[in-house]
Every structure is written in C-alpha cells, then in structure tokens.
Write a structure and sequence with these properties.
Elements (H helix, E strand, L loop, with lengths): L6 H6 L14 H10 L10 H4 L11 E6 L5 E6 L10 E14 L13 H6 L1 E9 L3 E3 L1 E2 L3 E6 L3 E6 L5 E8 L6 E9 L8 E5 L11 E10 L1
Protein name: PI-PLC Y-box domain-containing protein
GO molecular function, one term: phosphatidylinositol-4,5-bisphosphate phospholipase C activity
Pfam family, one: PI-PLC-Y
C-alpha cells in the first residue's frame, strides 16, 4: 500500500479536491478526516486565500498552544495491540503539532501580487513533537484498556489556519512500537479551555469506542 503525501500542501496552493489512498490510515488520511469530519463535505479556505486580491502572510502572528494543562490525559477502551486481548502492555502518548511558516519572501507578479502557488512554495513544514512516559495498562476483553498520564506539554508556533495537532497512543515494546489509537484535528477547530472527551480511531481508522480526556489551551503571545 502506498503512503499519502501531506494534503495541506495542496490545500495551501488552492486545490479544491485532494485525492488520497484510503487503503492506509496514515497522517494524510487522518488530516483529511480531521478537516472534514462533522462538516457538509466542504470547509472555507484560509482567510488570506479568500481575500479578493491580497495574500497577507501576517495573519495573527505567533501563538502558543498548551495541551492537558495541570491534569491528566486519560485514554479509555484502548484496543489490544496486535490482537493480544486480555494481556497488559506498556503504553505512552505522543503528540505532534505540524504547520507551515514562511522562510523566504515569495516572488511577486507584475502587479505586485503574490499567487497562491508562490505562497505555498515559500513555506517550510515544521513538526513539533512530545512524548509522555510509558505506563503499564491492563487490557480486559470486554472493556479494553484504560490509561492515565498526569503530564503536560506546551509548544510555541506561528499562527497557521492549516496547523494540525495529532494525538497518538503507542504500545512501548522492544523494536518498533505499534500505534494503538489516533486523534487528529486542525488547531483552529479545537475547543479551548474545557475538558473534552475526544474520539480516537484504531490503527485501521475504525471507531472502536476509544476516547481520551484532554484539555487544550491557546494563548496569543
């Protein structure tokens, strides 16, 4: 199965539809689902792309996002890694924030305007990552596994309407760790300042009842 490219690169250049290979539940498919789930099948482009002429890069400046502040991130009904039902395993949370920022001023056209394509090619991809400690959880055949991580994390990044946050739970094992559950959403669509129960999908993109209790906060710098 082939992997998907980052669809946000094409959304930033003005593409209306981005084709994805749904055989693999990778980051590209997760971003697409996070952007469109709960909508009528379409979302507005970023504000700078909706302006009649200008494409202003300065759209909000810098900001910081902090997640799960001063309390617990709790995952419930975690599926058994590799089908090992009823056995305990070590698990940890990994979070990612990925966005794009301008590195070189894009070339302007004869009238001084900047095209969407020129804007997209002047950006670099930035990924910020954090990993929790591993804890031991016990899996129950009927209820799944529950885990509580009393940790916080914080990032600073440049405001980007197509910035995404990804929340993953992995089994900690010898060799390559197996992904157990995933949540992915644009930062702009997160509910801030409240404890939320969010849905996590399994490694194949199926809803098996796994949830996480998390809290997101956004602060302008």
């Amino acid at each position: 199965m082939s992997s998907n490219l980052d669809p946000s690169k094409f959304w930033r250049s003005g593409s209306q539809v981005v084709s994805l290979n749904w055989q693999k539940y990778d980051k590209g498919v997760q971003m697409n689902e996070g952007l469109f789930v709960g909508t009528h099948g379409w979302v507005l482009k970023p504000e700078h792309m909706r302006k009649k002429r200008g494409l202003d890069f300065d759209d909000g400046g810098a900001c910081a996002i902090s997640t799960a502040a001063q309390a617990q991130a709790e995952g419930t009904c975690l599926p058994a890694p590799n089908g090992r039902t009823g056995k305990s395993f070590e698990a940890y949370i990994r979070t990612e924030l990925f966005y794009h920022r301008e590195v070189n001023p894009p070339p302007t056209e004869g009238d001084g305007e900047v095209s969407a394509v020129a804007k997209s090619t002047s950006l670099e991809n930035v990924a910020l990552r954090w990993k929790s400690k591993s804890i031991k959880v016990g899996h129950h055949p009927e209820d799944g596994a529950d885990g509580v991580w009393n940790e916080t994390w914080e990032w600073e990044y440049e405001r980007d309407e197509l910035a995404f946050i990804r929340f993953l739970i992995y089994e900690d094992e010898f060799g390559k760790d197996d992904r157990v559950s995933t949540f992915c959403s644009p930062v702009e669509r997160l509910v801030m300042g409240e404890w939320l129960v969010v849905r996590l999908m399994d490694r194949k993109g199926k809803d098996v009842g796994t949830t996480a209790l998390v809290k997101f906060e956004l602060e302008e710098l």
